[in-house]
Design a protein that fits this description.
Layout: H1 2-15, H2 21-30, H3 37-47, E1 50-53, E2 59-62, H4 73-87, E3 88-94, E4 97-102, H5 107-117, E5 124-127, E6 131-135, H6 139-153
Antiparallel strand pairs: 1-2, 3-4, 4-6, 5-6
Helix pairs in contact: 4-5
Length: 154
Amino acid sequence: MKKNRQDKILELIARYPIGTQDDLIDYLNEHGYHATQATVSRDIRALKLIKVLMEDGTYRYILPKTQSGSADPAMAKLNYHKAYADSILSVAYAMNNVVIKTTPGMASAVALMLDHTNHDMMLGTVAGDDTIIVVTRSTEESRALSDSIEAQRR
C-alpha cells in the first residue's frame, strides 16, 4: 500500500502543479488513496521531494531532477540550495536556539536541508509552516550556525 501510494504521489507531482500537502492529499483522495497529513509528510520526506518556486511565483513539489527527467546530482543540489536560500527570510539566535523565518509553507523543506547539511552543529529541528527552531548544544554553536545560514543565503 505504501509503495503504491508513493508511486501515485510521484505520478501526481509530475502531472499536476501540487504546492501544498493539502493539495496532494486532495489529489490522492481523488485517485482512491486516503492518506492523512502525517502520512503524506512522511512520504514527502521518504521520496526526498522538494518544494521550489516556479517562474509564475507559485510553489510546487518536484523530485530533484532535471527538466528532461534524467537524474542529475549537480542540478538536484543546485535546486535544493536555491529553494533553501530563497526561502529563508531571517535568522536569529538566543542561547542554544536558532529561529529561522521562511516564506509560508517552506519551513519543512528548509529544515530538511538543514538536517542534511548542518547535522554536526544541531541537536534537532522543529518546523512549522514558516518558522523553524533549531536546538544546538551552546550559544557558540547557535552563533556559528546562524552565521553559516546567513552566508549561504547570500
